[in-house]
Specification:
By secondary structure, this protein is of the alpha/beta class. The chain contains 13 helices and 12 strands. Strand 6 (179-182), helix 8 and strand 7 form a beta-alpha-beta unit. Helix 3 packs parallel to helix 9 and helix 6 runs parallel beside helix 7. It binds pyridoxal-5'-phosphate. The site of pyridoxal-5'-phosphate (PLP) has 16 residues, from helix 4.
Length: 390
Amino acid sequence: MMENPKTYLDYAATTPVDSRVVEVMLPYFSQIYGNSSSIHFNGQQAETAIENSRETIANIINCKPEEIVFTSGGTESDNLAIRGVAFASREKRRANHLLITPVEHHAVSNTALQLAKLHNFDVEYLPVNKYGQVRPDDVSALIRKETALVSIILANNEIGTINEISEIGSICQEMALPLHTDAVQAAAYLPINVNELNVDLMSIGAHKFYGPKGVGVLYIRDGTPILPIQTGGDQEMGLRAGTPNAPYIVGMAEAFHISHSERDNHNPKNAALRDRIIEYVLEEIPDSKLTGHPIERLPNHASFLFHGVDGNMLLTMLDVAGFACSSGSACKTGSPEPSDVLLALGYSHEWAFGSLRVTLGRQTTRTDIDSFLSKLPELVAHARKGVKSL
Ligand SMILES: Cc1ncc(COP(=O)(O)O)c(C=O)c1O
């Protein structure tokens, strides 16, 4: 087996599963293994565990348990929200228009693009400022009577910016128009109370908050028009066919509960380390820029551009030096193209190629960050020379 890199600084890509979470999951693999749809005792045991988990999550995000649909993760939640509402709104009131931002995760943006290409939906992009934030006035101006859905990311995976969406939510509610938010990156760090955010749909995924990969939630406000995109049995209020994954759902609820109750212990430590990284990098590394908002950003998230650097080369050098970081989003790894989020924010290719995302977590220490910062300027300089000699 490969050894772990010494210092993991990629908590936005994923997090290790908390040992307390593993412990509560274990019985559901081979002791409490019934199918939650079965009438018998074994099935009812699984059903009870799933319903308790639904209630735990509903209490945290302040909704009714029946407004929670379990999915296979953030990607599926985004797909169900966008596609499910688009199809239902077209069927119900011929709504054909989707309003999204140019800084969405591919789970949202590629779903919208497919709806445009194969199903003739009209996808329009809300303008964003240089930090990736949407202005409520722009939403009011672009809403049409045939708008089916507005989707705005809550906290950006690549640049860490937080969108202030509760005012946008009020605007959408006045127009009886569903607002979806992708809260996959936000869930571990921000209170995601659906009634304070004024959202009608919200996606989260467990592996970003020390839960298992392959399980997530779509919150769907009662009365929101939505059709299933995975058809079959009538599990999950008929919105997501397939036998629910009891061990993962139980693990997700435990992970979310722990994350919610311990967030205030971890956020201040991470925010202080994040600020130290940002200050040091901007001072010590020439031709570097912070991406995303300087203040309205996730407490664990620092992201940069280095002019004339090949981001993937820098990541490889960092890996060899013992640091696991990312260039923006885990999904982009290996892609020779700069991120479309960075290009949408107006950065040139020369800047956008040189992206670095450093994301901190529960295990990150001051020593980790000092050691990382002691190596980074030299590695950026080497990566710059590497680009010139190509
Ligand atoms: C903002 C955002 N949305 C959606 C996803 C996809 O989530 P999952 O990996 O659970 O499918 C991610 C994962 O990186 C993300 O950061």
